[in-house]
Amino acid sequence: MQIIRVTDLEHPGLTDFARLTDVALRRVSEPAGGLYIAESPKVIERAMGAGHHPRSFLVLEKWLHTVEPFAAASGAPVFVGDDELLSSLTGFSLHRGALASMHRPPLADPADLIASAKRVVVLEDIVDHTNVGAIFRAAAGLGADAVLVSPRCADPLYRRSVRVSMGTVLQVPWTRIPEWDVAKTVLHDAGFHIAALALSDDAVSLDDFAVEAPDKVALVMGTEGDGLSHRAIDAADTIVTIPMLAGVDSLNVAAASAVAIWALRPADVPGPANGSRN
After folding, report:
1. What interhelical angle do 41-49 and 64-74 show, nearest 10?
2. pLDDT category, 21, cuts 50, 70, 90?
3. d(CA 207, CA 278)
4. CA 229/CA 5 separation, integer angstroms
5. What tens digit of pLDDT does each residue of 89-107 get?
6. SS3 content of the chain, % helix, strand, coil (to 5)
7. Which CATH number fits domain 3-103: 3.90.930.12, 3.30.1330.30, 3.30.1050.10, 3.20.20.220?
8. I need a surface site. Which of 142, 154, 202, 220 has the fewest CB within 10 A?
């Protein structure tokens, strides 16, 4: 196990961890370098459990023991330093103790990813990394089989998305899907009924849609504020809405995804303890 004590920030191996709070730099350094950052020993464990390979670790001295098994298994170097020095490198305090620079796995072909799925969630142009992470957590916890993200959707492997998801972005199968002129065909060819969650005069209540939901449903969620694009609406087989009370017209996209995934879960996904879906 290669342990490197950090006394200054000149080591070239520290580049992966520099200025992690700068969104512009993250967009350049992560995808272009084929990397993402896993934050906390738990997330690192999930990443490696999913077959992802670390390039290096950055850890506070008192947390070194938490990454030693991962470092020993991977052979990746471990950079160890004090909080003040490492905070000046990353731009934030490492209160979760450890970071890992992980190689990104190649994205799967969408048709292959959803071939055996029954419930998939499609995220169109969602820009908030917190929402993306929360939707992945809902997908994992409530029984969606996969997540598809549009070309302009926020990166599920962005550090904040991974953290908010509690690492579930590393276990829920996902990939990017093309624009709707192609995506619609991909989903229909796989047998999916496209259900767009949106406000519309001709929308069907989620309650009614769930009563006789198709065998395979692709649930499409839109960006914060503007919701789904006209292209997504046009591609949909059904527009579905969540009935609301007290003059509220809609939920936050992450909350709405949880409600919809739960309502549309297949029969073989466990329901309440008494077996009832009511």
Report:
1. 20
2. low
3. 11
4. 50
5. 888 888 888 999 999 888 9
6. 40, 20, 40
7. 3.30.1330.30
8. 202
